[in-house]
Specification:
About 45% of the residues lie in helices and about 15% in strands. It is an alpha/beta fold.
Protein backbone atom coordinates (compact mmCIF):
# COMPACT_ATOMS: atom_id res chain seq x y z
CA UNK A 1 0.00 0.00 0.00
CA UNK A 2 1.33 3.42 -0.97
CA UNK A 3 2.00 5.85 1.84
CA UNK A 4 3.72 9.16 2.56
CA UNK A 5 3.70 12.41 0.63
CA UNK A 6 6.21 13.71 -1.91
CA UNK A 7 7.14 16.98 -3.58
CA UNK A 8 8.54 16.77 -7.09
CA UNK A 9 10.68 19.48 -8.68
CA UNK A 10 8.82 19.78 -11.96
CA UNK A 11 9.70 21.53 -15.22
CA UNK A 12 7.32 19.78 -17.60
CA UNK A 13 10.23 18.17 -19.44
CA UNK A 14 10.84 14.54 -20.31
CA UNK A 15 12.85 13.76 -17.21
CA UNK A 16 10.70 15.45 -14.58
CA UNK A 17 7.49 14.14 -16.14
CA UNK A 18 8.84 10.59 -16.10
CA UNK A 19 9.75 11.17 -12.46
CA UNK A 20 6.24 12.48 -11.78
CA UNK A 21 4.70 9.24 -13.05
CA UNK A 22 7.28 7.33 -10.98
CA UNK A 23 6.33 9.30 -7.88
CA UNK A 24 2.62 8.67 -8.44
CA UNK A 25 3.40 4.95 -8.36
CA UNK A 26 5.46 5.25 -5.18
CA UNK A 27 3.60 7.67 -2.92
CA UNK A 28 0.07 8.19 -1.65
CA UNK A 29 0.15 11.91 -2.44
CA UNK A 30 2.32 13.98 -4.78
CA UNK A 31 2.55 17.74 -5.23
CA UNK A 32 4.66 19.49 -7.87
CA UNK A 33 6.73 22.65 -7.63
CA UNK A 34 7.91 24.67 -10.61
CA UNK A 35 10.32 27.58 -10.35
CA UNK A 36 9.87 30.72 -12.42
CA UNK A 37 13.31 32.25 -12.89
CA UNK A 38 12.45 34.20 -16.05
CA UNK A 39 13.84 31.32 -18.05
CA UNK A 40 14.45 31.59 -21.77
CA UNK A 41 10.87 30.68 -22.66
CA UNK A 42 7.67 30.81 -20.60
CA UNK A 43 6.39 27.77 -22.53
CA UNK A 44 8.14 25.61 -19.95
CA UNK A 45 5.90 26.88 -17.15
CA UNK A 46 2.79 26.68 -19.33
CA UNK A 47 3.63 23.07 -20.18
CA UNK A 48 4.12 22.22 -16.50
CA UNK A 49 0.74 23.80 -15.71
CA UNK A 50 -1.03 21.81 -18.41
CA UNK A 51 0.49 18.49 -17.36
CA UNK A 52 -0.27 18.91 -13.66
CA UNK A 53 -3.80 20.05 -14.45
CA UNK A 54 -4.42 17.02 -16.66
CA UNK A 55 -3.09 14.65 -14.01
CA UNK A 56 -4.90 16.41 -11.15
CA UNK A 57 -1.68 17.28 -9.31
CA UNK A 58 -1.48 20.21 -6.87
CA UNK A 59 0.99 22.58 -8.52
CA UNK A 60 3.04 25.30 -6.83
CA UNK A 61 4.82 27.93 -8.94
CA UNK A 62 7.46 29.86 -7.00
CA UNK A 63 9.13 33.12 -7.99
CA UNK A 64 12.87 32.57 -8.39
CA UNK A 65 13.59 35.68 -10.45
CA UNK A 66 16.61 36.48 -8.29
CA UNK A 67 18.38 33.55 -9.95
CA UNK A 68 17.92 35.27 -13.30
CA UNK A 69 19.63 38.39 -11.97
CA UNK A 70 22.56 36.46 -10.53
CA UNK A 71 23.22 33.94 -13.29
CA UNK A 72 23.37 35.26 -16.88
CA UNK A 73 23.52 32.28 -19.25
CA UNK A 74 21.74 30.80 -22.25
CA UNK A 75 18.69 29.78 -20.21
CA UNK A 76 18.21 33.22 -18.65
CA UNK A 77 19.31 35.49 -21.52
CA UNK A 78 17.86 35.22 -25.02
CA UNK A 79 20.89 36.98 -26.49
CA UNK A 80 23.26 34.24 -25.27
CA UNK A 81 23.54 31.34 -27.71
CA UNK A 82 22.89 27.76 -26.60
CA UNK A 83 26.27 26.11 -26.99
CA UNK A 84 27.84 22.91 -25.79
CA UNK A 85 30.96 23.55 -23.77
CA UNK A 86 34.42 22.81 -25.11
CA UNK A 87 36.25 19.93 -23.48
CA UNK A 88 36.59 20.64 -19.78
CA UNK A 89 34.14 23.53 -19.90
CA UNK A 90 30.48 23.76 -18.90
CA UNK A 91 27.86 24.43 -21.60
CA UNK A 92 26.30 27.87 -21.88
CA UNK A 93 23.05 26.41 -20.46
CA UNK A 94 24.53 25.75 -17.01
CA UNK A 95 22.74 27.88 -14.39
CA UNK A 96 25.03 28.13 -11.34
CA UNK A 97 23.27 27.17 -8.12
CA UNK A 98 19.99 26.21 -9.80
CA UNK A 99 19.54 22.74 -8.34
CA UNK A 100 20.94 23.86 -4.99
CA UNK A 101 18.27 26.56 -4.76
CA UNK A 102 15.46 24.52 -6.30
CA UNK A 103 15.93 21.57 -3.97
CA UNK A 104 16.41 23.82 -0.94
CA UNK A 105 13.15 25.64 -1.60
CA UNK A 106 11.45 22.33 -2.40
CA UNK A 107 12.57 21.24 1.07
CA UNK A 108 11.02 24.33 2.67
CA UNK A 109 7.77 23.63 0.80
CA UNK A 110 7.88 19.95 1.75
CA UNK A 111 8.17 20.86 5.41
CA UNK A 112 5.15 23.17 5.16
CA UNK A 113 2.89 20.57 3.53
CA UNK A 114 4.07 17.59 5.55
CA UNK A 115 6.02 15.80 2.82
CA UNK A 116 9.04 13.69 3.70
CA UNK A 117 10.10 12.92 0.15
CA UNK A 118 11.58 15.16 -2.55
CA UNK A 119 11.84 13.86 -6.11
CA UNK A 120 14.05 15.32 -8.83
CA UNK A 121 15.01 14.23 -12.34
CA UNK A 122 18.74 14.91 -12.16
CA UNK A 123 20.97 12.38 -13.87
CA UNK A 124 24.70 11.75 -13.79
CA UNK A 125 24.67 9.59 -16.93
CA UNK A 126 23.40 12.22 -19.42
CA UNK A 127 24.04 15.35 -17.40
CA UNK A 128 26.04 17.56 -19.81
CA UNK A 129 28.69 17.96 -17.14
CA UNK A 130 26.47 19.94 -14.76
CA UNK A 131 28.07 19.56 -11.30
CA UNK A 132 24.72 19.95 -9.51
CA UNK A 133 23.34 16.82 -11.20
CA UNK A 134 25.90 14.51 -9.59
CA UNK A 135 24.92 11.91 -7.04
CA UNK A 136 27.52 13.15 -4.57
CA UNK A 137 25.90 16.61 -4.63
CA UNK A 138 22.43 15.16 -4.02
CA UNK A 139 23.68 13.07 -1.10
CA UNK A 140 25.47 16.05 0.40
CA UNK A 141 22.45 18.33 0.04
CA UNK A 142 20.15 15.71 1.53
CA UNK A 143 22.25 15.72 4.70
CA UNK A 144 22.41 19.52 4.71
CA UNK A 145 18.64 19.96 4.33
CA UNK A 146 17.97 17.57 7.17
CA UNK A 147 20.44 19.36 9.43
CA UNK A 148 19.16 22.80 8.43
CA UNK A 149 15.50 22.01 9.08
CA UNK A 150 15.77 19.27 11.69
CA UNK A 151 13.93 17.02 9.26
CA UNK A 152 14.19 13.55 7.78
CA UNK A 153 13.77 14.26 4.08
CA UNK A 154 14.75 11.70 1.48
CA UNK A 155 15.74 13.05 -1.94
CA UNK A 156 14.87 10.55 -4.68
CA UNK A 157 16.62 10.55 -8.06
CA UNK A 158 14.96 7.82 -10.18
CA UNK A 159 17.00 8.73 -13.26
CA UNK A 160 20.41 9.16 -11.66
CA UNK A 161 22.06 6.17 -13.36
CA UNK A 162 19.87 5.95 -16.49
CA UNK A 163 20.79 7.17 -19.96
CA UNK A 164 18.11 8.71 -22.17
CA UNK A 165 17.17 5.40 -23.80
CA UNK A 166 16.66 3.88 -20.33
CA UNK A 167 14.61 6.92 -19.31
CA UNK A 168 12.28 6.27 -22.26
CA UNK A 169 12.10 2.62 -21.14
CA UNK A 170 11.10 3.69 -17.64
CA UNK A 171 8.36 5.93 -19.03
CA UNK A 172 7.10 2.99 -21.04
CA UNK A 173 7.09 0.73 -17.98
CA UNK A 174 5.05 3.40 -16.17
CA UNK A 175 2.52 3.43 -19.05
CA UNK A 176 3.49 7.03 -19.77
CA UNK A 177 5.48 6.63 -22.98
CA UNK A 178 3.09 8.43 -25.35
CA UNK A 179 2.23 11.05 -22.73
CA UNK A 180 5.91 11.92 -22.25
CA UNK A 181 6.57 11.80 -25.98
CA UNK A 182 3.72 14.10 -26.95
CA UNK A 183 3.17 16.47 -24.02
CA UNK A 184 6.55 17.32 -22.51
CA UNK A 185 8.91 20.17 -23.29
CA UNK A 186 12.63 19.45 -23.29
CA UNK A 187 13.68 21.83 -26.08
CA UNK A 188 15.84 24.86 -25.21
CA UNK A 189 13.87 26.79 -27.85
CA UNK A 190 10.51 26.10 -26.24
CA UNK A 191 9.03 23.63 -28.73
CA UNK A 192 6.84 20.90 -27.20
CA UNK A 193 7.21 17.18 -27.99
CA UNK A 194 9.96 16.45 -30.54
CA UNK A 195 11.22 20.02 -30.21
CA UNK A 196 13.32 22.02 -32.63
CA UNK A 197 15.59 19.09 -33.39
CA UNK A 198 18.66 21.31 -33.34
CA UNK A 199 19.49 22.22 -29.75
CA UNK A 200 21.57 19.89 -27.54
CA UNK A 201 18.55 18.92 -25.43
CA UNK A 202 16.53 17.88 -28.48
CA UNK A 203 19.41 15.91 -29.95
CA UNK A 204 19.96 14.04 -26.69
CA UNK A 205 16.25 13.30 -26.33
CA UNK A 206 15.92 12.07 -29.92
CA UNK A 207 19.07 9.97 -29.74
CA UNK A 208 17.73 8.21 -26.65
CA UNK A 209 14.33 7.70 -28.26
CA UNK A 210 15.84 6.24 -31.43
CA UNK A 211 18.01 3.88 -29.39
CA UNK A 212 15.09 2.73 -27.28
CA UNK A 213 12.77 2.23 -30.24
CA UNK A 214 15.31 -0.05 -31.91
CA UNK A 215 15.14 -2.41 -28.97
CA UNK A 216 11.56 -1.90 -27.83
CA UNK A 217 9.60 -5.11 -27.54
CA UNK A 218 6.18 -5.33 -29.06
CA UNK A 219 3.50 -5.72 -26.43
Amino acid sequence: MKKDKAVIVFSGGQDSTTCLFWALEQFAEVEAVTFDYNQRHSNEIDCAKEITKELGITHHILDMSLLNQLAPNALTRSEIEVEEGAEGELPSTFVPGRNLLFLSFAGVLARQIGAKHIVTGVCETDFSGYPDCRNVFIQSLNVTLNLAMNAEFVIHTPLMWLDKAETWKLADELNAFEFVREKTLTCYNGVVASGCGECPACKLRQKGLDEYMKNRKEF
